[in-house]
């Protein structure tokens, strides 16, 4: 598929895809005889994973490190797993902090509900 089709399918702009290729997140993209990029289902799955990592807060630099290891092949599986484990721990810590914030906001909402309720009674 061409870059426009790929962009629509993965919901990432063509500009961003070109940037990802430039910084090494997309490697070995096939080009047709005219030099236009041609993307495969493997590229679709990879970009979906990149988006997931990005959505969890992983930096493009770290995703790039992961992409470099992936490109080196199966022998880097342990390093890639370690990188994902480290990110998982960071994500868990972030979730714990966000859960604390959420609970504090809920407490404040309950406080205001009581304040409002007491105002309507008097």
From TrEMBL:
Q: Respond yes or no to whether keyword DNA-binding is given for this record.
A: yes
Keywords, A to Z? DNA-binding
Q: Does the keyword Aminoacyl-tRNA synthetase apply?
A: no
Q: Which Pfam families does this chain map to?
A: MerR_1 (PF13411)
Q: Which GO terms describe its molecular function?
A: DNA binding; DNA-binding transcription factor activity
| Superkingdom per UniProt | Bacteria
> What is this protein called in UniProt?
Probable transcriptional regulator, MerR family
Question: What is the organism field in this record?
Answer: Oleispira antarctica RB-8
